[in-house]
UniProtKB/TrEMBL annotation, chain A:
Species annotation: Flexivirga endophytica
Gene Ontology molecular-function annotations: DNA binding
Domain HTH luxR-type: 144-215
PROSITE patterns in the record: HTH_LUXR_2, RESPONSE_REGULATORY
InterPro entries reported in the protein's UniProt record: CheY-like_superfamily, Sig_transdc_resp-reg_C-effctor, Sig_transdc_resp-reg_receiver, Tscrpt_reg_LuxR_C, WalR-like
Positions carrying 4-aspartylphosphate: D52
Protein name per UniProt: DNA-binding response regulator
Domain of life of the native organism: Bacteria
GO biological process: phosphorelay signal transduction system; regulation of DNA-templated transcription
Keyword terms of this UniProt record: DNA-binding, Phosphoprotein, Transcription, Transcription regulation
Automatic annotation (TrEMBL), chain B:
Lineage: Bacteria, Bacillati, Actinomycetota, Actinomycetes, Micrococcales
Record PANTHER family: NITRATE/NITRITE SENSOR PROTEIN NARX-RELATED (PTHR24421), NITRATE_NITRITE SENSOR PROTEIN NARQ (PTHR24421:SF10)
Full protein name: histidine kinase
Species name: Flexivirga endophytica
Span of domain Histidine kinase/HSP90-like ATPase: 335-425
Pfam families: HATPase_c, HisKA_3, Sensor
Matches recorded under InterPro entries: HATPase_C_sf (IPR036890), HATPase_dom (IPR003594), Put_sensor_dom (IPR025828), Sensor_HK_TwoCompSys (IPR050482), Sig_transdc_His_kin_sub3_dim/P (IPR011712)
Source taxon at top rank: Bacteria
Coiled coil (UniProt feature): none
Entry keyword set: ATP-binding, Kinase, Membrane, Nucleotide-binding, Phosphoprotein, Transferase, Transmembrane, Transmembrane helix, Two-component regulatory system
Cellular component aspect of the GO annotation: membrane
Enzyme class, UniProt record, top EC level: transferase
Molecular function GO terms recorded: ATP binding; phosphorelay sensor kinase activity; protein dimerization activity
Amino acid sequence: MRVVIAEDDALLREGLVLLLQGEGLDVVAAVGGPEELLLAVEEHRPDIAVVDVRMPPTHTDEGIRAAVAARRAHPELAVLVLSAYVEQSFATELLADGAGRVGYLLKERVGRVATFLEALQRVAAGGTAIDPEVVAQLFSRQRANDRIALLSPREREVLSVMAEGLGNAAIAKRLFITDNAVHKHIRNVFAKLALEPGDDSDRRVAAVLRFLEAADR
Amino acid sequence: MSNPSVSTEHTSVLAEGWSVVRRAAIALKWLVAGFGIALLAIGVIALAVVTALLCVVGVGLLLLRAMLDLVRRVAELERRRLRAIGHPVRMPYAEPPRGARAAWQAIAHDPTTRRDLSWLATYAVVGFVVGAVAIQIVANGVQALTLPAWWHLVPRGEATLVNGFVAVTTWPGAWVAMAMGVIWLVLAVALSPVLLRAQTVTGRRWLPPDPAIDWSTRVAELTATRAAALDAHALELRRIERALHDGAQNKLVTVAVLAGAAQRSLENDPQRTAEILERVQTGAESALAELRSVVRSILPPVLEKSGLDGALSALAAQSPVPATVRVTAGRVPVSVEATAYFAVAEGLTNVARHSGATHASVEVTMRGDVLQVRVEDDGHGGARVRDGSGLAGITRRAEAHDGTVTVSSPVGGPTILEVRLPCGS
């Protein structure tokens, strides 16, 4: 897998390069700012970009904007955004095109290397990886009149784990329920969120997006 | 680096003497300015008398408004002088009265106008006399001191002292005159701060707003300073948040990432583990250093440990420009101390960066319930306060305490930063 890294803190950038190279990934460029990221994507056409949210010049959301811009230019690019804190509006912005291939994780998750690599693979393969922290934040902000409110507690649980990007088998394992039960819950979630039948992975992304948007309002 | 506490007694006495002379020179400058304002006041009074006479004929009534305007301008001039000296006197005037009748009403009843007029009358006398005395003392001193150089060049009997009362005709007389000149100048140095205080008494008495009608402006002022306090607070919080996020937190994330890498390398490539662990340690250390500097910027631990005196001495010891510190104030609220500390830190930084000074002095005194902080250097002056500079930040901090920051920095020096922080309720 060919990776571009954008992180303005030199020490952390080096650390990320060291880690990913150690895992046998091909880090084709490691840059320190949003513009350099766009140039690097243009030049190297990586499979995935790992991007820090706060970068120069204003250290607010440059990373998100750069990631969105890179995606507009290259829709096939997968983006994994790393952030020191979670802000669910960032996640919504990233997922807005509904195409998946997006991850949004707290920076420290990188330290759990196995899980992080899984998330990286999943996003590169077209899925999502939304940090559990974002999901938790969403539930604490749900409003009664949202479609989300129609979900049963179990269905919510399934949806939040789905938002993290886990597949059916993994969800079943995490929640200690059978594959069949997971299947049933997911069908209910799709129905309650009024998602038309179609490509299953598209619907999964759409469900997560719906979920994020619900919290945005 | 020089430590002020070990600097020799000799140099500190010299520096002390030098700063006394410099202060006297500054006082003298303001005394002369005050004399000028007194002359203006006398002029305005003369015009007022003419206007009053013309009122008898009727024409003068048309001039009343212009007259009041003139009084205000002179009073404003004095207020500017008072502010420059360090008495924050401000007057929010209402619109000047329109028409002769309204002008007359103002003179008869408006407390602000009446206070202005009271000041004008008293200051014309006090400002003039005190200013004249100060100028006379200096003139006497200079004349007497230089007498040996010129008395034999002028016609006999014209080398006189004290406005012509004493004539010098012999060399011994000239030398005595010179000795007297020294005494005059010592007197000038000793008296000019006192005279300046005397000259500003009437202004300080009459030129601030009438305490009875001042509540609304005071409320407006408090609202503004409260907003400034909140602003300063928000800015400070943002700065701390930024420092924590982009500094310490990133370093800790690095530690977590590298720890993960080390764990993985144990399985894949054990030789690299030691190298990665080394980086883990470096990361942890720099995170700690980052945290320390953030903490120090919130409330310097040295301030808590050794009080303002000790903290400022420590600052002075770190200053590249040798600095002496004198603190005569006792303990004040810790937030005031912190502001004073950061003001001095900023002052000394500016001295080192811009002033070209060879020496700086820091003085912290208590005047009533106001903490006065003064940072003075012997550099080339010409400093300006720009928005966004460190000084602007200090000003915001001071305003949050209802305090003031003044910078006097004429080209040629010296530069004096003065921060006044009320410590009362």
